[in-house]
Amino acid sequence: MKIIKKIKVDLGDRSYPIIIGNGIYGNKNLYRNSNPKNSILVSTKKIKNLKNSSIPKRFYNSEILIGDGENFKNLNSCESIYKNLLKNKYSRDCCLLAYGGGVIGDITGYVAATYLRGVNFIQVPTTLLSMVDSSVGGKTGVNHSLGKNMIGAFYQPQSVIIDLDSLKTLPKKQFNAGMAEVIKYGVIYDKQFFEWLEKNKKKIISLDRVSLAKIIATSCKIKAEIVAKDEKESGIRAILNLGHTFGHAIEKNIGYGRWTHGAAVACGMVIASELSEKLGKLSKNDLSRIKNLLSYFDLPIKLPKKINASKLYEAMKNDKKVLNNKIRLIIPKKIGECFISDKVSKSNILKTLEINRDQ
């Protein structure tokens, strides 16, 4: 049992720690503001049955298991959790333990934000993507038939517990999906981190423990810094959505679950980068480096052949960042820096979508 790194998400009286380590699920001190007598584990059968690492039963009173995957990220799943909590008469002093990937974290966080007008919850992410992205920052929510993450709330956890041992059984496809978000941090905020990823990609893909700890800690530190400046995404936090406006539209158009969220974000990142290069902002060299690093982790850099550019554009108009009916895009200026623009024309977006489609 070893704690490698602690990172503080500084939000005043709602601040909380991110704890990264090996074999740390058994450390009772990490389950901040929770009582085992009224703590409820929310997970899936698949995740709960993993042999590598699990939350000891002494830390929770009961469990709620829901469906696995993006198709279950909806109000029906929330309703099943509400029903269980109400039937068992859990009061405001209960605590939900979100044990799983991004879908589990988002659903559990939203239920915690809304059950009895708010109860404590703790994020225990088990996938790389949820470790470096969705478990940190307080974004919670579910999908709607008209768009991804359209129903939700900003609601911070009591702590985030990241155990590297849980990555041992993570399928390669899911690991690579998480790398899309890791690479994103280098593109939007930290040139040196991007360069480090380029130099150490072989160690990362071979699951070298030191390298894994580095990418998770650095990603969480960057996100914590940005969230501390702009908790509710009224300014700089929007840059964390690089690739997501395109990515969410891709997921909706091809069907939730057909691509991993990370794959869709990776493709969206490339489209935003191609658009920037065509606007004379991003250099061809930086564009090539972004595409090469994503490709190394088997992430898509082209849209599916059958996708319709016009339908994709229409889906983008439902994005949460739209203001005054204008699509706001996060666009890389160079590796380590990006900007937000609502001035990119429909024709430029459509042309870029067409160019970036598999022929």
In the CATH hierarchy, the architecture of the largest domain is Up-down Bundle
- CATH fold description of the largest domain: Dehydroquinate synthase-like, alpha domain
- Tell me the fraction of residues in β-strands, as a range: 15-25%
Give the helix level as a range of percent: 40-55%
Overall 3D form? globular
Largest sheet: 4 strands, parallel
Which stretches are poorly predicted, pLDDT < 50 over at least 5 residues? none
Description:
The protein has helices at residues 45-48, 75-87, 102-114, 128-134, 172-189, 191-199, 201-205, 209-229, 244-254, 261-278, 284-296, 309-316, 346-355, and strands spanning 2-9, 16-22, 39-43, 62-65, 95-100, 120-125, 139-144, 147-154, 160-163, 329-334, 337-341. It is 42% helix and 18% strand. The protein contains 13 helices and eleven strands. The mean pLDDT is 94. The radius of gyration is 20 Å and the shape is globular. The strands form four sheets. A four-stranded parallel β-sheet has the order 4-3-5-6. It has a three-stranded mixed β-sheet with strand order 1-2-9, covered by helices on one side. It folds into two domains: 2-169, Rossmann fold (3-Layer(aba) Sandwich), CATH 3.40.50; 172-355, Dehydroquinate synthase-like - alpha domain (Dehydroquinate synthase-like, alpha domain), CATH 1.20.1090.10. The longest helix has 21 residues, at 209-229. α4 runs parallel beside α5 (172-189) and α9 (244-254) packs across α10. It is of the alpha/beta class and 359 residues long.
